[in-house]
From TrEMBL:
UniProt keywords, alphabetically: Nucleotidyltransferase, Transferase
Recorded superkingdom: Bacteria
Transferase found in the keyword field: yes
Entry-linked InterPro entries: CMP-NeuNAc_synthase, Cytidylyl_trans, Nucleotide-diphossugar_trans, PseF
Designated name of the protein: N-Acetylneuraminate cytidylyltransferase
The enzyme's E.C. designation: 2.7.7.43
Main enzyme class: transferase
SUPFAM superfamilies assigned: Nucleotide-diphospho-sugar transferases
Species of the source: Celeribacter marinus
GO molecular function, one term: N-acylneuraminate cytidylyltransferase activity
Amino acid sequence: MIGWSIAAARDCGLFDRVVVSTDDAEISDIARDLGAEVPFLRPDNLANDHAGTVPVITHAVEALALDDDVAVCCLYATAPFVRAADLAEGLRLLQAGASYAMAVTRYDYPIQRALRRGEDGAVSMIDPAQMQVRSQDLEPAWHDAGQFYWGRAATWASQLPVFDRRAHGVGLPSSRVVDIDTPEDWERAEALFQVLQR
């Protein structure tokens, strides 16, 4: 899986270095075999299911002793559908003054029509005031696509949250977005991969 992200970073022509942050010896070996650097190992406190992206990249920026103005892109290992053009657009937004630039995609259905479901199975609208509003009149909502985040080294080091008011989104079609967190996500990603390879 990590090979797709390394290849995308290596082949897009935007990066001087492709560095993998991990605490795992096997992943380190795979990353090096695929042409990435692994100049440090991630500490245990940043290598668990609760470690956030910003602290992980802050650690990498500090371990690499990067100059403040260097553009740094966090590219998730679980982003097999990332494209060079999307990464380039993120860099352009960063260079135009965004604090961060990240991949985002629209929700497929208006979130204003979201339901809550009780333990007994009963459903009710979270916001009943939206009941009579036509779905096409509701504001589109976007979410993090879980692919990449651009920021300056100094911004990462300051630990500014990625959803800062000056952050910008690179809009991706939902057909190229799968945030792989569960076995079901993996199955969807495999099916989508088969379709996109055709």
